[in-house]
Amino acid sequence: MSERPYLHEGLLAGFGGVLSCGLLVVAGARSAVFLQVLGATLLFILAVAGLSRLERWGHVFRVRLLLAYGATFFFYASVKDTIPALGLPTRDAVLFGVDAWVFGGSTPSVWLQRWSSPAVNDVFSASYLSFHVYLHLAMAWAVVGPRVRAEAFFGQVFSAYVPGLVGYYLVPAVGPVAAYPELFTVPVEGGWVTGLNAAVVAHGSSTFDLFPSLHVYITLVLLAHDRLAHPWRFRGMLPVAGLLFVSTLVLRYHYAVDLLAGVVWFVVFRALYPRLLGVWESWRRGSGVAPAAVIPPG
């Protein structure tokens, strides 16, 4: 097996390298955020390189694939520190302006608050949380399965995450409820599900994680994967995904344009990923012919 990195590993390492360079220039070599991002990027690269040399150990590849999850989580969480360190201004006014132009003066979250109630908020809070359940259960199912299936899943999902994270830097924003609290006259109240979701968001959000909506973008990537690889899971998650998308507006986390951006990001990713994967795998395996990007059933 080639010791060269997977596509998603190369994308994550490249993202970390570019981000480190930006922080070096803007924040300086002694800034804590630069050292953290650089250190994490180097650690990821070294860990991948080390594990790639242990291919003879049957299940080492599973640990290597999970490194991508760890690196992605780090880069996502670090956004709350890197955006201010880079001096990037928030763009909530622009996003709100687009929504107001399309929807007649405001963003849909403001209009939807008229139906706010504990029961409604509990349903949509559960829907919002379903993203994390879907992602993590799908990832767990993939990583314990056959190698081909695991590589196909991790390759798609964590390659997709990189352009999603790039979007946060292109259009930093904090969301309707944080940027325009005066527009909301009805609080989001509910039972324990609403409370759990609020706690997850409060402790797990990276603050500027709006554009594109990863709840839309990555869910679409997961659904596209499952449509071919796991049709039964695709059929089960399709209606849940619809509620999930609406929940981002009902709970006031996103502008409608964020959801549209998630769809656009997905369409572009689906168009480019097979071509990029073919070129990358040709290089990775030292072959002159690029293999087709095939998702195996499982």
UniProtKB/TrEMBL annotation:
Keyword Membrane: yes
Keyword entries, A-Z: Membrane, Transmembrane, Transmembrane helix
GO CC annotation terms, alphabetical: membrane
Short name of any one Pfam family annotated for the protein: PAP2_3
Inositolphosphotransferase Aur1/Ipt1 domain sequence ranges: 111-268
Bilayer-crossing regions: 7-27, 33-51, 63-79, 123-145, 157-180, 200-224, 236-253
Alphabetical list of InterPro entries matching this protein: Aur1/Ipt1
The protein, known as: PAP2 superfamily protein
Naturally occurring in which organism (per UniProt): Myxococcus fulvus
